[in-house]
Design brief:
Residues 4-82 form the ATP synthase F1 complex delta/epsilon subunit N-terminal domain. Residues 90-117 form a coiled coil. Produces ATP from ADP in the presence of a proton gradient across the membrane. Keywords: ATP synthesis, Cell membrane, CF(1), Coiled coil, Hydrogen ion transport, Ion transport, Membrane, Transport. By secondary structure, the chain is an alpha+beta fold. Helices cover 28% and strands 47% of the residues. Strands 1, 2, 3, 4, 5, 6, 7 and 8 form an eight-stranded mixed β-sheet that branches. Helix 1 runs antiparallel to helix 2 (110-131). The chain starts with a strand and ends with a helix. The structure holds adenosine-5'-triphosphate (ATP). Adenosine-5'-triphosphate binds next to helix 1 and helix 2.
Length: 134
Amino acid sequence: MKTLTVNIVTPDGPVYDSEVDMVIANTASGEIGILPGHIPMVAPLVVGAVKLKKDGKSEYVAVTGGFVEVRPEKVTILTQSAEVASSIDLARAKAAVKRAEERLQMKQDAVDFERANLSLKRAMNRINVHEGNI
Ligand code: ATP
């Protein structure tokens, strides 16, 4: 059976590099499933979990947006930060949720609101990926 090489790369370096059967990612226009032989494309990603299927098992990587580049035999994801489930610090993510929720409750300008909202999304996504709650 054909496989896909998947690379998930951040400014701090590679986070994931493996052969998989299928990649499922959340693009700005919805979820896409990528199988070997997919037509080439580039799409922006939203904060979410990238699902990597191999031999009937699934692994998840939390990403904070970025881009996915698809070629028939290779998928590259470029994102500001990415964590595999086992490297997520749950206490840190919970503290980030608390901070963000406190900021969202305070009166503030639109820029701060948007920042807090994005921070909340990143932290909730990390908690969900850590807990396998996808
Ligand atoms: P925090 O407020 O906790 O810093 P953040 O969403 O602002 O969270 P980012 O700017 O997205 O953090 O990421 C900064 C770096 O910290 C990245 O390398 C990211 O992988 C890492 N990181 C952030 N939160 C966690 C976490 N809960 N567990 C593991 N690594 C994390």
